[in-house]
Design brief:
It is a single chain. With 317 residues, this protein is of the alpha+beta class. It has a single domain (73-311), classed as Aminoglycoside 3'-phosphotransferase, Chain: A, domain 2, CATH 3.90.1200.10. It contains 11 helices and 11 strands. Strands 1-2-3-5-4 form a 5-stranded antiparallel sheet, with helices on one face. Strands 6-7 form a two-stranded antiparallel sheet. Strand 6 (109-111) and strand 7 (117-119) form a beta hairpin. The longest helix is centred in the last third of the chain and has 28 residues, at 240-267. The mean pLDDT is 94.
Length: 317
């Protein structure tokens, strides 16, 4: 297949490259192609099986590093709601209903196109901790003086481990893991999910935190609270206090991870676009940390070592 004859589409943070043909999208990937092609399609298949719209596989040539999938168009929910005249809460309510449907999925095993079984992993405490280390290994080394790095890293590790121990609910819910408006597509009067390969079984609050505290799309705190409350109206069985605790902790840890990932994407992969989003991630962290006593130690450490100047830094390549 000659990719030069196709229209190249904007990509994501993965190693995948997307090309549009007349009636489909070609997904090409050479690096980490198991997760980016095989597992990617497997989770798509699982979602479709559970009546959630995702890109359907049309053909595959795994040996030649590509698959062909259904074209879901170019209209993301992000594209829709960035219009100031749009009723954002109305859209978010539709998204919450989709999230509730997603969280009812119980399937853990799916057959891949290579006729092997893929089992959705568990979002373990260890995995959450390792994700937070991305902040330590990429961002701290970038913005903190070398002589202070070891001390800050050790203190942050202890604080993060303590926060993880304070999470209340079980890891038994299907988690998309990157559930935000840029990964939701408006398609034939429904909402489709993309970028699905990282799904795990984890905490019910994780995807809601991804949606509400979205580093890519700024929303006022008043809207954040309305979305959160609407989710609770659809899940009246939830212990509200425990759920809010988990939401706050996971939101902060997720955005700490994101700062690390965005720094890595710039330093390792030369994807400089993500650097401009780091100040947004800091603001989301600040909002949660400043309004919950569970973050007392984290707040002290961050305020002491990561100045306003560092947090709002205008990055260069």
């Amino acid at each position: 297949m000659n990719l030069n004859n196709l229209i190249k589409l904007s990509g994501d943070a993965s190693f995948r490259k997307f090309y549009r043909s007349d009636k489909s999208v070609i997904v090409f990937c050479q690096k980490e192609k198991k997760s980016n092609l095989l597992i990617y399609d497997s989770v798509n298949k699982l979602l479709i099986k559970n009546k959630i719209k995702a890109p359907k596989l049309l053909t595959q040539n795994y040996k030649k590093n590509f698959i062909e999938i259904e074209d879901l168009g170019d209209v993301s929910i992000y594209n829709k709601i960035k219009n100031k005249k749009i009723n954002k809460l109305k859209y978010y309510k539709k998204i919450i209903l989709l999230l509730c449907k997603l969280q009812k999925i119980k399937t853990k095993k799916i057959k891949t196109f290579n006729n092997t079984n893929y089992i959705i992993p568990k979002y373990s405490e260890d995995k959450l901790f390792k994700e937070s280390e991305l902040f330590l290994n990429w961002y701290v080394t970038k913005v903190i003086k070398k002589e202070n790095q070891k001390m800050i890293k050790n203190k942050l590790k202890n604080i993060i481990q303590t926060l993880l121990k304070k999470i209340k609910n079980k890891n038994n819910i299907f988690v998309h893991r990157d559930f935000h408006v840029s990964n939701l597509m408006e398609y034939r009067k429904t909402i489709a999910l993309i970028d699905n390969q990282d799904a795990l079984y984890g905490n019910r609050a994780y995807d809601l935190a991804s949606l509400i505290d979205d580093v890519r799309f700024k929303t006022p705190n008043s809207l954040k609270e309305k979305i959160f409350k609407y989710f609770l109206t659809q899940n009246k069985f939830i212990n509200k206090k425990d759920f809010k605790n988990d939401f706050d902790v996971l939101s902060v840890l997720r955005n700490i991870k994101i700062i690390g990932i965005f720094t890595r994407l710039s330093s390792r992969d030369k994807k400089y676009y993500y650097l401009k989003l780091i100040p947004n991630a800091w603001k989301l962290i600040e909002y949660r940390v400043n309004n919950n006593a569970v973050f007392k130690d984290l707040k002290l450490l961050l305020d002491k070592n990561f100045s306003k100047k560092i947090r709002q830094k205008k990055w260069k390549k």
